[in-house]
């Protein structure tokens, strides 16, 4: 009953009349467009891309220079072969030229977000309310394939905010999540004691949907399966933030009695691709994003081959992202899903996992904790976490002395100890360079335990 009231009365009133957002309109469009043919969807996507390129060429200083150096104008980009003549955008390009990437004609407000730096490079970026509404709408559609709808009870085994919240902020969050019927459990501090408490709360809460970081979700399933049975059956389980292996999918499904839906997203763009009920690849949200899978030369790979993922955000007119190398790899596909949706697929997302870090008391902390923490510091240019002993970490940091101070260092160290436990020893090494692996890759967390 509440779920229906929330979807049809409370949420439309809040989104439309209080916040004046278009998210629900975009969601209605997306629910229809997913069933269009591949050709129809690609035509809409190309139209949106052309509009973005015209806007960018006219209003963004950085991209005006790029077009000029490439000998291109939007009119000359008539197909994908022309589009790939634009250079790939790297994180370092954004760090060096962010202010020149802002659209000069955009008068609306923008929000700033700092990425966690899963490639070891924290990044600050701007986005518009309209692009955010698209991202939320896309996420809700993707989650709906797992049976999730607004107003349903949802439990999140997730990374929570860094640092201490004020009482007022905590109160606001509690009210917000109570209205949404969502409960959050901090996967960065998932001790056995916390798992016991989490299980008790979840059994009482009886969520219809469980969403979680893949490894903590799997560890929780192992914990529950070895001790007891859950007292409820969710409609679906959504894994995120880390690669989902089949043995993990099977265990989670066995314990909770529900199908597991794999997703792929990023802090820059939120949900990029997700599984439907057929579980035969991840559908790419091409109404919102132009996604490429390319080789080291920036040209598209063949179906079945792995390549770097490039993202063009079709709706962020405040700070356009074009051919942005996100740092992950995927296996390209030309298959059509038997579900009937026209959305193209990734066969799988690969090369995005971070090593788990062990605590002195034997817990496993997701490697994603460290990018989640490091995004708080503007003065960190790159970092790497290495574990060779159970009770010791080595953290290499390239810092900007003008932006990183003693208070930042103290806060960082305290947050790491809070998660890893008092028994951890941390060796900080402030360096000028952090070398790549022999294969030319950069590893953010390295566990040799």
TrEMBL record:
Gene3D superfamilies: N-terminal domain of ligase-like. InterPro entries: ANL_N_sf (IPR042099), CapK_Type1_Caps_Biosynth (IPR053158). This is Capsular polysaccharide biosynthesis protein. The lineage of its organism: unclassified sequences, metagenomes, ecological metagenomes.
